[in-house]
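My main concern about presentation is that the manuscript never shows what a single data entry looks like. Each protein is reduced to its one-letter sequence and a matching series of backbone shape codes. For the editor and my fellow referees, an illustration may be useful. For illustration, here is how one protein appears when written out as sequence plus structure tokens:
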Amino acid sequence: MIDGMMRALFLNSEQVCLCSKRVYVERLLFERFCTAIAERIKTMNVDWPHEAATQMGPLISSKHRDKVLSLFELARGEGSIFIAGGGVLSFGDARDSGAWVEPKSARSSGDDARCD
């Protein structure tokens, strides 16, 4: 289940309108699910798209990265709790010129949240 969810969440660096944005998990499984997703996100290989082991690459542009980061802030402002990621990646090499964000997952503040 977690493998499929990771593919659904991070397909094309989350830049596909078909990517899962909200997942409903049975209350009994919720904590275990959140822990498993957070652990997988923290170990994701974020790198150049042409590298075979890459699981998530950069966003399309700095402008888009800024929009994504503003949505992260909106989610935090509405009470979402980030369980993994949500910042800007820094590599200390040529990748720093790209539009990188950390893969993230958040616990939503509720069904009426505009952004998770």
Observations:
- The CA atoms of residues 33 and 86 lie 18 Å apart.
- The first helix runs from residue 2 to 10.
